[in-house]
Amino acid sequence: MQQIVDFVLELDKLKGITRKTRPLGLDRYENSAEHSWQIALLAASLAHYAEEPIDLDRVIGMLLVHDIGEIDAGDVMVYADSNRQERQSAEAAAVTRIFGLLPEEQAARFLALWQEFDEGGTPEARFAHAADRAMPVLLNLANGGQSWLENGIRHEQVVARVAPPIRAGCPALWEYLETRLEEEKRNGWFGAE
Amino acid sequence: MQQIVDFVLELDKLKGITRKTRPLGLDRYENSAEHSWQIALLAASLAHYAEEPIDLDRVIGMLLVHDIGEIDAGDVMVYADSNRQERQSAEAAAVTRIFGLLPEEQAARFLALWQEFDEGGTPEARFAHAADRAMPVLLNLANGGQSWLENGIRHEQVVARVAPPIRAGCPALWEYLETRLEEEKRNGWFGAE
Fold this sequence. Notes:
The structure is a homodimer.
Chain A: H1 2-11, H2 32-46, H3 56-65, H4 70-73, H5 84-99, H6 104-119, H7 123-141, H8 146-150, H9 155-169, H10 171-186
């Protein structure tokens, strides 16, 4: 029992890992714990739009654990391209440490979910990636392009980065977003070309 | 698709509903969105300690939606006894409104999870309640009794309020907590008797 308690208290640190988007109507930045909760519910709401039949429970499991590596490695905006491989190793080391706080069986279960997401090779992982990538776009589209403007992210960068994973996991969601992104490009909600 | 987007953006408001506990090492109060994420993982870690065999996926579903009614009704500390029934009606009205943003099938699925938790009649709901009630206790036990001291909550109030649901859903967890609560009573981590 103490192992489980140590693990869940270690998880508390994800509440202090901030992202680049702000919750609607709040001044602060969003953290990776509340983000994980929101995309689990986005995935649950969207499940019938998945590109292939999926096991939703595994998708939710992946989304709940996918950011835990940030406890040691921090959050980096999806548009920061450098050191992607180094970062992936750092997150893998982090989850090995953190899941390792648990009894072996639970540790293995969480690690398998994390790895499935990380590798992105299953329909469930692709759908989970679509939800993860779509959420900050949806927030920006409701927030005047907040994190795109604050970080000088251009419309074409957004499309280049999020279209492939969202289209692969949830084509209907990409169709919706493509139109909305085009509309807000005209409204100047992106960094300058 | 627009219905799903409206729903998930409405969920954003739960990030602004604050509870009485503070995340470890942070100055601010915890919000109900990140709390929901953490207890879903607590439940997943604890599943083999459940009092009866459970369908963990339904437990996780319940925990992800159980606080959504607070978007309209706010969070009230578990030790605030007054108006419990009024509050329950307010939360029920809130989830009817918020899940009602979704297409009928998803709305019905989320509402069924919320009601199962609210009624507390199944092994899954009892286990989910145990995780929900235990988490702020675990945080306080790691945080010098922070919210108990700030709100003048006595040791006997904690035991009276959390022992029955935690024992009913996850007896091994209550056994662990009972000893820890007794230890910290001696350290003065509670409101005065």
